[in-house]
Specification:
InterPro entries: Cupin_2 (IPR013096), GPI/OXD (IPR051610), RmlC-like_jellyroll (IPR014710), RmlC_Cupin_sf (IPR011051)
Largest sheet: 6 strands, antiparallel
Shape: globular
Number of strands: 11
CATH topology: Jelly Rolls
Number of helices: 3
Strand content: 35-45%
Order of helices and strands: HHEEHEEEEEEEEE
Distance between the termini: 49 Å
Domain Cupin type-2: 65-126
GO molecular function, one term: metal ion binding
Organism: Crystallibacter crystallopoietes
Helix content: under 10%
CATH class: Mainly Beta
Structural class: mainly beta
Protein name: Cupin domain-containing protein
Length: 140
């Protein structure tokens, strides 16, 4: 068993969060032509929720027919781990048909997005290298 660092309180109500208790929120960004960003997100680890000072982790869900806008983050890298579904992942000028179990790294500044052109929902774990306040720059 590890000891907590000196001065760090172990407050499980801040450290442990569950997608079923937290619930999903709709994405709220807008594209270059006013089109809405589509998908759902449930934050699980963040500055506000957990006190994190170095990362943000969420559960993302893209419903059938939805498109998470192509965009980039000039100040943060990101990753996806696909749990369910087979989304089309847009990375720079390439497209990749993902499947459950895939881990996808998105370097800072790389244009990326997700299209769910299938009949099944897509579930993913999404991580960002900043706890909050990263820039979302739409590329479409």
């Amino acid at each position: 068993m590890t000891r907590p660092e000196a001065g760090v309180a172990t407050d499980l109500s801040r450290l442990v969060h569950n997608v079923h208790r937290e619930g999903f929120k709709e994405l709220d960004k807008v594209g270059l032509k006013g089109q809405p960003d589509q998908g759902l997100v449930c934050n699980l680890i963040s500055r506000d929720l957990s006190g994190s000072d170095d990362l943000n982790v969420s559960w993302g869900r893209i419903l059938s027919g939805q498109h998470h806008l192509c965009h980039h983050h000039p100040d943060a890298s990101e990753f996806y781990v696909v749990l369910a579904g087979t989304p089309l992942i847009h990375l720079g000028d390439k497209e990749y048909r993902a499947s459950p179990g895939d881990g996808i790294y998105i370097p800072r500044g790389t244009t990326h997005g997700i299209t769910n052109d299938t009949e099944s929902d897509v579930d993913m774990i999404v991580g960002v290298s900043k706890p909050a306040d990263w820039q979302f720059v739409p590329d479409e």
